[in-house]
TrEMBL record:
This is Bis(5'-nucleosyl)-tetraphosphatase [asymmetrical]. One of its GO terms (biological process) is AMP biosynthetic process. It comes from Anopheles braziliensis. GO terms for molecular function: bis(5'-nucleosyl)-tetraphosphatase (asymmetrical) activity; nucleotide binding. Signal peptide: none annotated. It comes from the Eukaryota. Keywords: Hydrolase, Nucleotide-binding. Pfam families: NUDIX. Residues 1-137 form the Nudix hydrolase domain. Belongs to the Nudix hydrolase family.
């Protein structure tokens, strides 16, 4: 059975740029991802995304404009050999100058434009997802949060 995780692809609008929050976990030298984490027993994906985002970045639901109609599910083989399913919702940081508060799970964070986020993520499925979201944001096709 695939292990489930959920999180938010958080973006901000800053000086005519769209930037995405990427976090770096020290246990995985080359892995940069948006805030996400494992779904706990009895927890739904959206609740997990809220909890993990708060734990990993310090951003709570009130800090974000969550587009529940904008989600993407990535399925892949984890480097430990098991199948993994990750659901991401798109969320905009309400105050673009609000700083993230990193958890002990992460050693660094960056706000990056789409192509730079793709370079450090190094994952083809992530690249497809973020590019699709980036187009929707720039074309104002998000709908209501």
């Amino acid at each position: 059975m695939a292990k489930r995780a959920a999180g938010f692809l958080i973006f901000r609008r800053l000086c005519e740029r769209i930037e995405y929050l990427m976090l770096h976990a020290p246990s995985k030298q080359y892995q940069w991802t948006p805030p996400k984490g494992h779904v706990d027993p009895g927890e739904d994906d959206f609740t997990t995304a809220l909890r993990e985002t708060s734990e990993e970045s310090g951003y709570t639901e009130s800090d974000l404009k969550v587009y529940r109609n904008q989600s993407c599910t990535l399925e892949y083989k984890h480097d430990k050999g098991h199948d993994k399913v990750v659901v991401y919702w798109l969320a905009e940081l309400r105050n673009p100058s609000q700083q993230a508060r990193l958890s002990e799970e992460h050693q660094d964070m960056r706000w990056l434009e789409c192509e730079d986020a793709i370079k450090i993520a190094g994952n083809d499925d992530f690249a497809k997802m973020i590019r699709a979201f980036d187009v929707r944001i720039k074309q104002s096709e998000l709908g209501e949060p």
